[in-house]
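re: ur msg from earlier - yeah i can do the manganese (II) ion complex, just paste it... oh wait u already did. ok heres what im feeding in:
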Amino acid sequence: MAGRTRSTATKDEGIFRKTFFMNRNVTFEESRACVVPVPYATTSYTEGTRDAPEQILLNWNVEDYDLELGYAPCSVGIYPLPEREYEGAEGLDLVRKVAKELFKFKKFPVFLGGDQAITIATAKAAADVFGDMTVIFLDAHSDMKAEFEGKNVTGMSVVKQLGDMDTLQIGVRNIGSEELDDMSEKEAFNRITDKELATALSNASRNVYISIDVDVFDPSLMPATPMPEPDGYTWSEVIGLIRKIAARKNIVGCDIAEHSPIPGFTAPSIMCAQLAYKVIGLKFEKEAKEKGWENGAEPKKRGKNGD
Ligand SMILES: [Mn+2]
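and the outut:
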């Protein structure tokens, strides 16, 4: 695709370089959160999701101060990693390796898919590093398909591929009959009540990883996704859920998957950027207030050479 700006950064010039993001200088070392582009797709339906990380970062039109949270989440240090390519089975192995390194470096990663097959790698990486782990899916679909387009590893099989890992699915409102048997073993909800959520979180591990398939949202809000499903969640419902999870659990990482940008229509990409920023804001809200991190103060001025 013309105009793509895939990074070819090497170790010396890549993540160790100072970057200017959201009007602030940040280095990988100083950052607590990372935005990680993962342009990876597994099916003909989801091919367009490869454009999402680039479009989300190009359309990162997000004000730095979050009025709802009462601080500027970028004060935690958010480092956008350069985009790289991931292909096939080796690509997914590489996603797992990259994710594992980020968890080991104690970064809070927000992975930008790609289709939701990326969660097979990122959730396993989280379990590799943190051990006990519950993967919470916000998703319109159950993603328990044994096979699709002749492949068993796709975004539609992510829950099945995670095997015995503890999962909690919220937003599920469309399912294939072949998935029903497997789903009876899983904890899954469409709308979830406060009481059901409280019980589900009591049974979950202390560490949780959240995978947001953007089709959890109503298509009126998020039409740019391969499998939109009516009667979806509002922005407040999704943010409210993440807020409740953050209050009870240690969220170790997150992904935003299945956004397939519509050329010339930037609102959905901007919303994904806002979602990523909000998740980071919710993750660090308590710590930022306790430690009195910069609260929307003067952003650091950019030097002559971006230093
Ligand atoms: Mn999904």
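cool cool. The pocket of manganese (II) ion is lined by residues 116, 139, 141, 143, 155, 213, 258 (CB under 6 Å). ping me if u need the other ligands too
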